[in-house]
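Troubleshooting log. The previous structure file for this entry was overwritten by mistake, so regenerating from the original sequence record. Sequence copied from the archived sheet and checked twice against the printout by T.R.
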Amino acid sequence: MATKVPVKKRKVKRRRRRRIRKSVLFGLIGIAAAIVLVFVLTTIPKITTDNKLKGLGYSKESIAMIKRQKLTKTILNDKLYSDNLNAALASENFNKDYLRLYLVTDSLSEDDTRLYDRLRARNYPEDSCLKLFEKLNFWEITPLLVFDYVSDVDAYIQDCTDHRDVNSENHFELSGSYVHWYDSTSASDAKDVSMIVNKRYYLGENYAPDDLVPLSLTYAAKDCYLRQEAADAMAAMCDELNAGGKPKMYASSSYRDYQYQVDLYNGYVNSKGQEWADSISARPGFSEHQTGLTVDMATTGAQLSKFADTEAFQWMQQNAHRFGWILRYPEGKETITGYNYEAWHYRYLGVELATKVHDSGLTYDEYYELYLR
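Regenerated output below.
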């Protein structure tokens, strides 16, 4: 009988389940909880904030800009909204310096912000500026750049409002007086043809242009002089008008030196008093004629005072700026210029600048303070 050989049993190793230590488990749970918490703390408030801004009326693009400019708290706390602000925020041209200005205007141009900056530079408080832009038209605000500082803007706004039935971009009058001419004056910057001379800015007693030339009798009365550039423009302008068969136009008066103005002004004062003299004539040093860039125009067969009734004047209204000239003291703007209407008084600025002033509808006093000063 064969002997059975015992079979050796193989030991089967049982894999032991790895148990995660409690400390590690709690750590993982903590990390997960932290992630959830961060998500909740960042996402929910974001959704809430976006919904609040949407509730005010802001678009997705505007909300993105609000956050980028860090304006969320300001806008939500004060509940700031306007269609104009919303549109501005959605554009790439938004400037947060004018945040509240967007709120009080229907649209905001570069000219508006420039005017706002000029007023702020003249120490008008922000609240006053916002009132002005909310209540008045652009052309009702620009005279403030020429006037003395107006401390009571509410009274000024009311004065403008009371004259809405007669005022327009071409006519501006007020009941109140907002300027004391000649009280605060400065020397004019006489470097180029854009210089301003009015009841604020003066030329020195010894100032005289170094390029004065005599005007031909074809274009002017006897002994008239202008700066060379203005003289050439004057001749070209007269040539075009006179070629049309209209009565001949010419300069009846042009450059006047300081002493000439002394005699002229004093004669007016002695005749009818200083108040009347100041309404029709400049004090010595404050006359544009001293620049060598100014003419009084006339036509043959008509008195100077009747120039507004001539065909030449009508032509000048449409064409003077094409040759670099502007009507300096227009009708209806006496409150701003400080002078009575003078249809014959023209100032040379060069074609580019004259065209800009003509197209703006502003007096040169306003234009200078807004764009050139």
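The first strand starts at residue 186 and ends at 187. Archived copy saved in two places this time.
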